[in-house]
Fold this sequence. Notes:
The complex is a heterodimer. By secondary structure, chain A is of the alpha/beta class. Chain A has two domains: 236 residues, Rossmann fold; 205 residues, Rossmann fold, CATH 3.40.50.300. Chain A contains 18 helices and 24 strands. Chain A has a six-stranded mixed sheet with strand order 6-9-10-3-11-12, sandwiched between helices. The C terminus of chain A is likely disordered. Chain B is built from 16 helices and one strand. Helices cover 74% and strands 1% of the residues of chain B. The N terminus of chain B is likely disordered. At the A-B interface, strand 2, helix 1, helix 10, helix 11 and strand 20 of A face strand 1, helix 10 and helix 11 of B.
Amino acid sequence: MPEIALEMKNITKRFPLVVANDKVNFSVYKGEIHALVGENGAGKSTLMSILYGLYQADSGEIFINGKKANISNPNIAIHLKIGMVHQHFMLVPPLTVAENIILGMEPRKNHFFIDMEKAIKKVEELSESMGFKIDPEAKIENVSVGIQQRVEIIKVLFRGAEILIMDEPTAVLTPQEVEELFEILRSLKKQGKTIIFITHKLNEVKDLSDRVTVMRRGQVVGVKNIKDTNQEEIASMMVGRKVIFKVEKKPLNLGKVTLKVEKLEALNNKGLPAVKDISFEIKEGEILGFAGVEGNGQTELVEVITGLRPASSGKIFLNNRDITNDSPRSIREDKIAHIPEDRRRRGIISDYTVAENLILGSHYLSPFNKGLSLNFAVINNHANHLIKIFDIRPSDKDNLLKSLSGGNQQKVIVARELYGEPKLLVAAQPTRGLDVGSIEFVYQQILNERDKGKAILLISADLEEILSLADRIAVIYEGKIVNILDPKKTNEKEIGLLMTGSTKNKELLKVK
Amino acid sequence: MKSIKKFDYTILLEKMTPLIAVILALLVGSVVIRLTGEDPIFVYKTLFSNAIGNRDGWGNVLFRATPLIFTGLTVAFAFRCGLFNIGGEGQMYIGTFLAAWVGFTFIHLPALILIPLCVLAAAAGGALWATVPGILKAKTGVHEVIVTIMMNWIAASLTFYLVLLYKASATEAMKAAGVQQMIPHTDEIAEAARLPRLYNIFKFLNIDFPAHNQVNVSFFIAIGVAILAYYILWKTKLGYEIRAVGYNAIAAEYGGISVARNIILAMMISGAFAGLVGTNEVMGFKYRWRQELFTNLGFNGIAVALLGKNHPLGVVLAAILFGILNYGGALVNIYTEGRVPRELIMVLQAIIVIFVIISDELFKRLIRQRRKIA
C-alpha cells in the first residue's frame, strides 16, 4: 500500500439551495498525480476549497499525513504544506516575477529591507529544479499566460507546498504550453510532490495522472487507476450515461455562398490593427472553423461580422448583399445568429430571468409585444417551449440566469440564437467551460444546423473541437489567416504550430 | 448537486434590509438622543404620534413626501439604466420654473388646459435639463455624475437670472412706501393653474380635514408617476431595453439594443420626474417661483432611492418615511422647546442611509459567500 498523503472523510457541505458535497470520501497517495473530474457543479471546486480552508465543511474530517487537521483558513492549509494554483491567476501585473512569488513571505535583510538577492536566487533554484528557466526580474504584465502559471506554481512551492492543487490549469494554455506544463508536473512528481489536478478534459487525465476520482452531483461516483480505465468509462461515470465522443458527421452538402468576407481590416480596443486583410467564404451546409490562440484577432473578427465593431476597411456580404458596418440589430434581422465567446459578459443578462433572456434581440418584435406593453403570455409560452426543447435546467422560466450552471446558461443562448432559423451561425468558443454533457449537446446543435444547410463560422481554441466539427480549418495568427486546411489532411500538431506562428517550419511539418 | 426544496429565506431577507436598517438606525439614534440628555422614548413618541397619529399630521407628511417621491424616482429610474443622475436638483429647478412661467404667462387659459400645460412644462423642463448629460454620456462617454453636478449650478444661476427678469411687480404697500420689490420671486400663477388642495376634495366628500393643510393633488400625480415608472420599467420593451443596458450594456448591445439611445431616453424620463416637483412646489403650494440656492429636495432623492432600493414602491415608502421624520422632527423641536433640535432628526436620516448601505453591503457578502458553489 502506498503512503496516504491526504484523506478527506465523509465531507458534507450544504449551501442554501444545494448540497455541494454529500458525504464525500477522497484520498490521495503521496507522490501521485491524482485527477479530480466531474461536470460543472459536481462539487470539485467546493471540495478543494474545503481542503484549502476557503470553506468549512458542515461535517466530515480531513487527515493530512495521517494526522487530523482542522483547516479553518488558507494560512493553516499553507502551514500544512498544501498549495493551490487557482484557475484565475492571483498575480500583481506591475510587479516582477520574483516580487510576486515572495509577496507576503518576503525574505528580510536587517529586519526592514527585502532581501531581493536571496529571493531571486531562490526563484531560480526552484525553476531549475523543475527543468525550466524563468527571468525573476521580468514584469508579470509582460510575460505570457503560460509563464504566469509557472510563477503561480513556484509561488506555491516557495511556500513549502508538498500537496499541490491545480484548478483547471490547462484551460488557458496552448497545446504546446499544456505539454510543457505536464513536463513540469511530472518533474514535481519525481521530487515526491503530490498533485491534485482538477480538469474537464479527459485526454489530459489519461496522459498525466495515476489515479482519477470522478464526482457527480456532489458525490464521488468512483476512483480508478488510470491503467484500468478509459476515457469513455470516465465520461459515462461523469454524466451517468454513455456519451458519444466520436462526432458523427454527415457528408458535406454545399449550397451557395452565404457569407463572403473580403480584405477585412479592423482595430482592437487599443486602436491597433487586430484583423488584417482577412478574406474567406462560407457556403450553405458548411462549418468553417477558425483555430488560433486567443487574442489573435478572432474576437475582433466575430465582432465585425456581427456589427459590434466597425470594420476599418474591407467588405462583408451576406447572400451577396453588403452588410459591412450595419447595426447589430439590422444584422440580427438579416438572420445572423451569434453565440458569443464571453458568455457572461456578452451573451446573457444574468439578472434577467430565463424567459427575459430568451427574447433578447427579438424583444421588440410583434409576438412579444401587444400595444405598448410586452406580451408576457407569449413570452412565457416561448420560454416554456424552448426550455422543453433544449432541456434547460432547472426548468423554471422565472429563474434568474445567474442561478443557472454554465452549461445551462449556454443552452439558453443556443436556444435563443437558433430559434430564429438563422442563415449564418457565428459560434465563438461555444463549449468553453462546459461539461461533457453540455458539450455533446452543443456539438449536436451545431451539426444539425449544418445539416439543415446553414452556414457556420466556428471559432475555438480547442483543437479537438475544431478538428471534429469543421469542414475547413482556417488558422489565424496575429490577425491574419495563415492557412486554410482540410481537417482530414492535418493534425493537432500541425495546427498547433501554425497557431503559434511557426510558419517557417511548415514544410518540415508536412503530415506523413 | 441535490436540490433542497426549501424556502429561500435570503430573498425575503434582502427585501427586508431597509426595514432592518431603519430599526437599527432608530436604536442608534436613541443613543444619540440619550447623549444629548433627552428621553428617546419621549422624543420618538412625540415624533410619530404627531406625524402619523392624526389626519393633519398625515397630510403634512404626504405634503413633504410628494417632492421626494418625484426626486427619488428620478434617481431610481436612471439607476435602472446604470446611470447615477445626481442632477435632480437642477432638473427640478428648470422644470419648476417653466411650470411657473407657463402659469403666470398664459393666465387667460381655462384650468382644463392650463393645468395639463403646466404639468407638461414641468416635465419638459426637467427632461430637457437631463438630456444634456444624457447625450454627453451616450455620445462622448463623459461621466453623468460630473455633468449633472455642473448642470445643477447652471440651473441655479439660470433661474436666478430668470427670476430677476420676471420679478414680481411691487405690491401696493411697496409702491406707497416708494420701494421696489426686493424678494426674488415671480408673479403668482393664474388661479386656473393651481392644483386643488386635498382639503377641497375631502370637504366635497364630507370628510373632516384641516383647511390649512398644504397637501395637494400633486401627491396623486406623484403616485401616478411611480406607477408609470414601474409600468415603463417592467412592462414595456423600452423598460426591457433600459434595464438591459443597466444590467449589462455589453450584452444589450449584442442583443441589438442601442445603448446610446436608451441612456438618453432614461435620462430624459428621469429628468422629467424631477421637473414634476414643480407641480407640488408651484402649482400646489407657493403658486409662484421663489429663488433659493438648492432646496436639497433633489439631493435627498438620492437617499430616498437608496432606501427604496431603486424600486418605485420602495421610493414611495422611503419618501413617506422621510416625510414623517421631517415633519415629526419639526414638531419635536417645538414640543421640547428647542432642546431637541431639528438637526438631530437630520442626523437620524443620515444614520438610516448609512445603515441601509452597510446592511446592503453585508447582505451582498453573505450571499456571495453562500453562493460560492462548486
